[in-house]
């Protein structure tokens, strides 16, 4: 995406004839977008030119400051980027972009704990920002803090229950968090995998594997009555393993052998 | 049939229209100048987001297990530490904010000044110089009720409703200029009717402001009343089919 924006946007900005067809306002908006795209694709020199042009035109704009900060980040000049963001926040204490970028600076510097702290501070105010919750979850995961990550995914699910990715990750975490004494987590995980299957019309292979693993874990870890699956779970298990086997056999028979070898699918 | 003098058109109708247009442009520019950059306060945003988060929680609680739901409910409603029971920043309470923050009052004053003063002046101007003219005729028949709207300033019971008096023409221009101005200026101009509506509702509640204490209380009550049901289990049955 960014590559295309960068390529076509560059030609639009440089071609003064087509450029003139845009209204002035739109022209500067294009400049901003193309600049971000160029930073994405790593064309730092060209991005620098555009930032300078924008700084000349809008010397006091916070949006341009944000771009300058992003430029500094791309040049790995984190100290200066931090300075720029702090200046933005001084002017507008609730500037979402600058707060988020600050977390990214900390993350890029390898200081995960600081990044987490910053992101927590950000989420304390902007607590309905799904992407921030997801980012915090992945930061926690990189620190092996599974429980905290699970909390973040719960929050993401609350805000966007229609997005299967969050359910999927949450279910994975429940599976990870479970042990022999907390088998109910596995039952919950199966529930969330079912939600994913429902939302993706049963196409998610990840969720199918999840169901299989959970059922397997319940059977192997539980003792006596607790090792039993409920009726619905039994049904789901046989359905999912049937579907997985047939789809493997259809698409790549070589891998189907491996699937059978794991013993995870119940052949009925 | 009434014969309208072309001089009335040239010296009454066109000048009124032209003046209204110019004043519209002027007002737009002035209000653009006077409009300070208002950056939202972090506390306001936080309060709004708190409310929204609790709304999300209520709407989608079925996707959470009991423990996770209770944890969040506690976060919002716990007796001492609950987010909805904290002392609310006085600036979030509209009545108190009005007292403590004079900038809000002056803000309102400038807004009103740019709006009322030109209206007042032009109204007086039209009333003084152009009252009593019949300036135009609408090409379609109308019911008697329109007399009040179209023939202000001309009290002739025998005059047909379709004739428009100069004062009414002024009012039509005042409220109908919005679209034309937008075309000319190429950007969104302020909307008189919107401002009017805002003023009307001013008595009932704060315009645009956030009444945090009351909203918090309502949200807390609803959260506490809520019955939590865990719905994820049902999906197993659904997926197994």
Automatic annotation (TrEMBL), chain A:
Sequence ranges of the TPR repeats: 130-163
Q: Where in the cell is it found?
A: Endoplasmic reticulum membrane
SMART domains, from UniProt?
TPR (SM00028)
Protein family (similarity comment):
Belongs to the EMC2 family.
On assembly, the entry states: Component of the ER membrane protein complex (EMC).
Function of the protein: Part of the endoplasmic reticulum membrane protein complex (EMC) that enables the energy-independent insertion into endoplasmic reticulum membranes of newly synthesized membrane proteins.
Where do the EMC2 TPR-like domain residues begin and end?
Answer: 69-173
Known Pfam families for this protein? TPR_EMC2 (PF22890)
GO CC terms: EMC complex
Name the principal localization, coarsely classed.
endoplasmic reticulum
The upper taxonomy is: Eukaryota, Viridiplantae, Chlorophyta, Chloropicophyceae, Chloropicales
| Naturally occurring in which organism (per UniProt) | Chloropicon primus
Its membrane topology:
Peripheral membrane protein
Gene3D superfamilies, from UniProt?
A: Tetratricopeptide repeat domain
Domain of life of the source = Eukaryota
PANTHER family per record: TETRATRICOPEPTIDE REPEAT PROTEIN (PTHR12760)
- Protein name (Swiss-Prot/TrEMBL): ER membrane protein complex subunit 2
UniProtKB/TrEMBL annotation, chain B:
A GO CC annotation given for this chain = EMC complex
GO BP terms: protein folding in endoplasmic reticulum
Signal peptide (residue range): none
Keyword list (alphabetical) reads:
Membrane, Transmembrane, Transmembrane helix
Pfam families the UniProt entry points to = EMC3_TMCO1
Q: Where is this protein chiefly located? A: membrane
Bilayer topology: Multi-pass membrane protein
Q: Which family does it belong to?
A: Belongs to the EMC3 family.
Its protein name is ER membrane protein complex subunit 3
Species of the source: Chloropicon primus
């Amino acid at each position: 995406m960014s590559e295309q924006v960068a390529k076509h946007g560059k030609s639009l900005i440089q071609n003064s004839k087509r450029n003139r067809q845009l209204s002035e306002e739109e022209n500067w908006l294009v400049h901003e977008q193309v600049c971000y795209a160029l930073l994405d694709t790593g064309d730092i020199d060209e991005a620098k030119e555009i930032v300078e042009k924008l700084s000349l035109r809008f010397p006091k704009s916070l949006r341009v400051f944000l771009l300058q900060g992003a430029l500094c980040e791309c040049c790995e000049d984190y100290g200066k980027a931090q300075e720029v963001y702090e200046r933005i926040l001084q002017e507008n204490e609730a500037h979402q972009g600058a707060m988020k970028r600050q977390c990214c600076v900390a993350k890029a510097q390898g200081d995960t704990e600081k990044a987490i702290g910053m992101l927590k501070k950000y989420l304390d105010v902007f607590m309905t920002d799904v992407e921030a919750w997801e980012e915090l979850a992945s930061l926690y995961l990189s620190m092996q803090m599974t429980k905290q990550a699970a909390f973040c995914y719960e929050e993401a699910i609350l805000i966007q229950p229609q997005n299967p990715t969050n359910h999927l990750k949450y279910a994975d975490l429940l599976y990870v968090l479970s042990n022999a004494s907390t088998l109910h987590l596995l039952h919950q995980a199966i529930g969330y995998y079912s939600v994913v299957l429902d939302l993706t019309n049963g196409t998610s292979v990840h969720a199918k594997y999840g169901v299989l693993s959970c059922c397997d874990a319940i059977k192997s870890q539980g003792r006596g009555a607790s090792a039993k699956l409920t009726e619905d779970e039994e049904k789901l298990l046989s359905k999912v393993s049937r579907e997985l086997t047939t789809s493997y056999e259809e698409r790549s028979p070589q891998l189907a052998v491996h699937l059978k070898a794991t013993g995870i699918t119940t052949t009925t | 049939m009434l014969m309208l003098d072309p001089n009335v058109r040239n010296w009454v109708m066109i000048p009124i229209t032209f003046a209204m247009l110019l004043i519209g442009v002027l007002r737009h520019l002035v209000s653009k100048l006077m409009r300070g950059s208002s950056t939202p306060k972090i506390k306001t945003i936080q309060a709004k987001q708190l409310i929204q988060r609790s709304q999300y929680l209520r709407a989608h609680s079925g996707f959470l297990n009991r423990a996770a739901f209770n944890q969040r409910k506690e976060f919002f409603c716990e007796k001492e530490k609950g987010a909805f029971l904290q002392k609310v920043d006085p600036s979030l309470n509209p009545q108190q904010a009005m007292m403590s923050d004079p900038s809000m009052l002056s803000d309102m004053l400038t807004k009103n000044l740019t709006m009322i003063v030109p209206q007042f002046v032009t109204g007086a101007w039209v009333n003084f110089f152009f009252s009593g003219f019949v300036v135009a005729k609408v090409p379609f028949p109308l019911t008697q009720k329109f007399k009040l709207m179209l023939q202000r300033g001309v009290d002739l019971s025998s005059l047909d409703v379709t004739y428009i008096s100069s004062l009414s023409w002024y009012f039509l221009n005042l409220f109908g200029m919005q679209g034309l101005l937008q075309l000319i200026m190429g950007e969104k101009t302020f909307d008189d009717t919107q401002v009017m509506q805002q003023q009307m509702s001013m008595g009932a509640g704060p315009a645009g402001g956030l009444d945090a204490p009351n909203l918090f209380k309502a949200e807390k009550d609803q959260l506490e009343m809520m019955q939590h049901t865990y719905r994820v289990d049902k999906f197993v049955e659904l997926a197994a089919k």
